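Risk register update: the risk of archive-format incompatibility is retired. Evidence:
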Amino acid sequence: MIKRIKHSLEYLIDKSSRNKTSKAEENLLTNFALSEYQNVKWDEALMGNSDEVSKNIYDGIQLRTMKKKKVNPYLKYMAAASILFLAGLGFFYKPIIANEKQLSFKTSGIPKSIQLSDGSKIYLAANSSFQYPEKFEGSERKVSLLKGNAFFEIAKDKTHPFIITSGELKTRVVGTSFHIQMSKSKCEVIVVTGKVNVTTKGQSVDLVPNEQALFESQKLRKQLAEKSFLVNWYNTDVTLNQTTLKQVITILQYKYGVSFQYDNEQVLATPLTVFITKDAALENVLEQINYITNLKFKVYGEIVKVD
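Archived output:
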């Protein structure tokens, strides 16, 4: 029964896209599409975003027929309706996604790590939030970095790509290690080992070690990464030798999920050497900096100020 309905819908949609339907067939398809689109309940938790799903199907039909112009204005609704109808019957989406119980992993003042069911390890910065399935199901391993920064060590599995959603970015890998750093104004992906693909809104870049993707002002670009970023500073002692205060502050922002406020930007050029142990509290690192520079950095929640 379901196979017969699915075949009929695909046949009529394809026929309509080629302007081969009769008036009766077109009316039947249009009425059915609008009725299903308006009345069938869509469950985003199980099926994903309805607009995105219908757009993907709509685009797929266009690509298949190679007719970008003069497309039936109801074709998008037809595509969405067919998905809604079949999903409502439990034909697809639900059997795959419903089994993935979603868990949350959050940090407060210090970084923490977690190992996923596939053996991948995630090192989460302080003041960050991460969502992942209790057990991976289906052909892809999907997780989300909801807030903050993280370092990923992904277990290799060529048949099940690992996909991280972070804001508007999607990062796709097979097995590799890299940073993802999110803020309100930008998102960065910095590759340490392996190959990574980053996409957003029709933009895509491929990255190899020592490269990073920067998404800022709705533009995605590739550039070289700074050497000090090419380590897992969440799980490794780091020595920043004869560097600048600006670079030290950048790493502290990523590791501890804080922002720095200062009135005099000239202090950022101050040279110093700082040793940061993997389990160091932010206050202990700031004590080093204060002693070396004679500045007075103090922590106020998620903000560090120079008093």
